[in-house]
């Protein structure tokens, strides 16, 4: 949550023209989003918490989904701009609603990614450990209730690493466009929001622990697909 970006001497509050609409597309807590809404309104500015989903691929292809919180009229006045950023903009409610939706999305993404890593590790341990057999499994699971975008994404990356050209651990140890470290603050925000709401979220705690372990081992730049290698031992597998 980039407080200086908004409140520093040369931040948004000082630079934006009266009546401007500011889009906050980063991940933030709903409480912070509401704080920004109120602070900008006092200065004659309008704010939409408008985080996005779709990853690097969605950003490159212009297919992001934008989850928006704020005034309905402000949202409608900003749709033309948001249409240049993504393929779908959804008004979810008042201040903080977009931020809340993003945290739900990040919790689901991290949880599904962690579950997928365990499933893939188990599959390989039980003998589904060739490129063809893993791809067949992924195809079989496409219509399963257990399927997920993260399973297909991570599974595809792992299958590619099993082409026999190099050791799978080495093949998976590449810098990701959606690295584990990006989930550190997002999961911290999820857990902060849960704590504020009086909720205990074991899966979020587990996912945050995995990210912490990866960062401690200097593996924060790796992809969630690499986590399949982290289940082999109590210690992280080094690339």
Automatic annotation (TrEMBL):
InterPro entries: 6-PGluconate_DH-like_C_sf, 6PGD_dom2, 6PGDH_NADP-bd, HIBADH-like_NADP-bd, NAD(P)-bd_dom_sf. Residues 7-93 form the 6-phosphogluconate dehydrogenase NADP-binding domain. Pfam families: NAD_binding_11 (PF14833), NAD_binding_2 (PF03446). One of its GO terms (molecular function) is NADP binding. Residues 96-224 form the 3-hydroxyisobutyrate dehydrogenase-like NAD-binding domain. It comes from the Eukaryota. This is 3-hydroxyisobutyrate dehydrogenase-like NAD-binding domain-containing protein. It comes from Octactis speculum.
